Amino acid sequence: MKKLSETRDILAYIEHLHHQLGETYKALDANVSDPRAHLLLEYLEAMENKSAEALHGYSRDSINAALREWEPADLDDRVVRERLTTLQHPDVSANELLDAALDVAEWFVEFYGELERAGTLPEQTELFKSLRDRAEREKKRLVRNVNMLSDF
Question: What residues are paired with 3 via a beta bridge?
């Protein structure tokens, strides 16, 4: 569990988490033999890197006063990390990867929803609503793209 004090800190930590997820998917890709799992891991790595870049751009470039505001928040990403440890075996299937990716995506949706409800400024509420909406769209895009992968 990580204690954070400003909205900017939360965004930086989540950016770092997305980067770590991308690295985890890249490392897993080195050990899989299933071609479908390989394609899915490449997609997941790219998706996480894109999310990290988007957060980086917003949190570093914005002059939004809401980024300096926040009541202390606890970030507990153990669920994400524990879920990824279940994938640490060479015969991990594409279905296992998809289930884990959907669990991680749902964690982000719920996390941003909690932050949205806890926001003390309209700008914070709007920021976390936007991030929650983006996480929901990414989750739907993941399902749609995986369905296309299953055609191969």
Answer: 74
